[in-house]
Amino acid sequence: MFADCCRIIHKDLVSEFRSRRAWPAMLLVGVVAALVFSLQMDLLPHEKPRLVGGLLWVSVFLAGAAVIERSVAGERDDGCWDGLRMMPIAPGALYVAKLAVNFLALLALGCLLLPLYFLLSDLPLLSHVRALASVALPACLGLAAVGTLAAALSAGNGRSGSLLLLVAMPLVFPVILAAAECTRLAAEDRFDDAWWRWMQLLWAFAIVFVTAGTLLFDYAIEE
Amino acid sequence: MKEHDLPLRAIGLTKHFGGQAVLDRIDFDLSAGECVAWRGDNGSGKTTLLRCLAGLTRPTSGEVEWFGRRIDGDPAVRRFLGMSAHESRLYPQLTLRENLLFAARMYRVPQPAQRVDALLAEVGLAAHSGRHPSQVSRGMGQRVTLARAVIHHPRVLLLDEPFAGLDEEGARWLWQTLTAMRAGGCAVCLTTHEQPAACQIADRVCELRSARLNEMETDVASRRGDVHVSVFPARKAV
Q: Under an 8 A CB cutoff, do B86 and A79 touch?
């Protein structure tokens, strides 16, 4: 299973590297969202530490939706998805492979947006790089897990873009909330019990969504 | 998998789309080495039937078994199945060789690179292996699609209009490949719009009409291509 996942991940990354279709769009949307949100934050300078976390993770999800949607919808072109489903690979493994690619994309986006928000908000985000990296891992995993499952559901209905956000938004809300709180507490230099509780919640959401996605993917891709 | 298990069996297969039955209680068996051709008008449900048999579309009711096992039970059983459809199923960003190599590795074909190179040579596309699907003609793409379907030496082959888009050379290759695979015990199902080649290679011809599959009159000579199934005009063997 691991080897099969690696082959699909490799194929997806090579395809994206050659087409440069989804990732550049994702990075562009992320940068634009960061710029717009940072301008809005300037209207409330004292509230910046409270706002930055939520805006950062909403930016990551909204920008990442382009890549997540293409990860499944792109396979529908030329019937490639059917070809993949015909292969002797468990649907759960297929989900894990798609999830891994989306996770990498969101992580790359986070690596771009975190310093950008640091520059635009003048908050000491980069002085807590390790803490924020430990937030980014479960946050990106949770967002990718929900997004991949929703992308499979929406691609099956032939309404990829709109349905993805519609299905995923309510589900990613707890992930974004937990990630935003962890980021806010880090920006306020508060690594107390509250920070740990949000971190535990974030990991719990990520694990639940990955497990649910692995189990439900077979039904999600059904026509 | 037991040797006496039928490669493919459909029991009471029914599929409704929007309340309308496209397939209605279809029972179907396929023995090892047998070739069955399905004919039917556009929209008669040939592709839906193939997709149900391949496990790509879940039937409204009924069951499909491959080698005695439920189709949705064990993904490993898919290793025995090859399928080609209307779409190329080739990744546009990968070259023809990379597409076949990806499939060969996913099916765990021994020595995948050698198998891919040999197959590309067989279909006459060795010189074009570095091209992308968009850079070759439809017929060439169809050859690669068919090569992809047989790359792992499947024991059941489902082909949707396999001769469509093929030139004479491609059709000959397909004919020879199917003949050789059937001799090795591979069972073949193909859909057709009355293509002579498809009907001549089939042991049985079935017609899909009004959501039902009806076996048509055949005789032994039709297998040789001398005389043919009643609905098809007589033709000479290729």
A: yes
- Classify burial at B2, counting beta carbons within 10 Å of its beta carbon; exposed 0-12, middle 13-18, buried 19 or more: exposed
Q: List CB contacts (< 8 A) between A19 and chain B.
A: 92-93
Q: Give the ipTM.
A: 0.85
Helix (H) or strand (E) holding B35: strand B35-39
Domain boundaries in chain A? 2-220
How close does chain B come to A149, measured CA to CA in Å? 18
Give the span between the Cα atoms of B185 and B73, in whole angstroms: 24
- B201, B178 contact by CB (below 8 A): yes
Task: Point out the least confidently predicted range of A166-175, B72-81, B105-114, B219-228.
Answer: B219-228
* Averaged confidence pLDDT in chain B: 81
pTM: 0.85
Helices within B15-167 (DSSP H only): 46-54, 96-106, 112-122, 138-150
B57 contacts B18 by C-beta, under 8 angstroms: no
Say which of A16, A89, A222 has its CB closest to residue B75.
Answer: A89
